[in-house]
């Protein structure tokens, strides 16, 4: 079993939002590794960061990706930083990996200034810029498809991805 599409990209790219819409269009299930990690840990991502640390979160995340890539045959959204794991990058080879691109200003607007995202609590704009600059080459290197999302509704993005996927 393997996913029809794996969505990657920074916070605010729309992986969860577009992923859910795409799954609806394809008539398949949606899964999100952030939700899987929360289910295993029994608490929100932000609490895992605070109480257990980012390193522990990354371990749980890598495990969640490993499981989802073999158990799930629908649309899979990864957490924004899941691609930081070398194991995850290797496991993504051979899968349809869709990189949702977003520019800094729209990413900042989408995640909101009072962000619940633990990595963006302080100085969200500058932290998001640094994170996006560092990760862009990683996302690009893994992507089999790149889809721009600036100035586009989530539904339009989902339609473009659906058209480009193999039946
Ligand atoms: N194309 C879009 N246009 C406008 N708003 C969008 C678009 N895509 C997503 N959003 C909005 O941006 C916010 C963040 O989207 P979402 O949670 O799907 O991002 P994400 O990529 O899953 O982020 P994370 O890495 O933190 O999980 C949501 O409020 C969503 O409604
Ligand atoms: O970009 C990131 O590193 C993160 C994105 C979210 O999806 C969550 O996985 C968490 O907030 C970390
Ligand atoms: Mg998400």
Automatic annotation (TrEMBL):
GO terms for biological process: amino acid biosynthetic process; aromatic amino acid family biosynthetic process; chorismate biosynthetic process. The keyword Amino-acid biosynthesis applies. One of its GO terms (cellular component) is cytosol. Substrate binds at residues 34, 58, 80, 135. Its EC number is 2.7.1.71. It is an enzyme of class 2 (transferase). It comes from the Bacteria. It is found in: Cytoplasm. InterPro entries: P-loop_NTPase, Shikimate/glucono_kinase, Shikimate_kinase/TSH1, Shikimate_kinase_CS. CDD domains: SK. Pathway: Metabolic intermediate biosynthesis; chorismate biosynthesis; chorismate from D-erythrose 4-phosphate and phosphoenolpyruvate: step 5/7. It catalyses: shikimate + ATP = 3-phosphoshikimate + ADP + H(+). Keywords: Amino-acid biosynthesis, Aromatic amino acid biosynthesis, ATP-binding, Cytoplasm, Kinase, Magnesium, Metal-binding, Nucleotide-binding, Transferase. ATP binds at residues 12-17, 117, 152. Mg(2+) binds at residue 16. One of its GO terms (molecular function) is magnesium ion binding. Belongs to the shikimate kinase family. Catalyzes the specific phosphorylation of the 3-hydroxyl group of shikimic acid using ATP as a cosubstrate. This is Shikimate kinase.
């Amino acid at each position: 079993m393997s996913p029809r599409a794996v969505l990657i990209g920074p916070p605010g790219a729309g992986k969860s939002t577009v992923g859910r819409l795409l799954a609806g269009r394809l008539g398949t299930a949606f899964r999100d590794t952030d939700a899987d990690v929360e289910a295993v840990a029994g608490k929100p991502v932000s609490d895992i960061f605070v109480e257990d640390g980012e390193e522990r979160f990354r371990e749980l995340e890598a495990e969640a990706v490993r499981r989802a890539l073999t158990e799930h045959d629908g649309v899979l959204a990864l957490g924004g930083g899941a691609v930081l794991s070398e194991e995850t990058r290797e496991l993504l080879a051979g899968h349809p990996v869709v990189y949702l691109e977003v520019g800094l200003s729209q990413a900042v607007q989408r995640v909101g200034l009072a962000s619940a995202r633990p990595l963006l609590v302080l100085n969200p704009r500058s932290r998001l810029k640094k994170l996006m600059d560092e990760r862009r080459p990683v996302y690009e290197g893994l992507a089999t498809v790149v889809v721009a999302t600036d100035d586009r509704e989530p539904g339009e993005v989902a339609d473009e991805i659906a058209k480009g996927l193999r039946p």
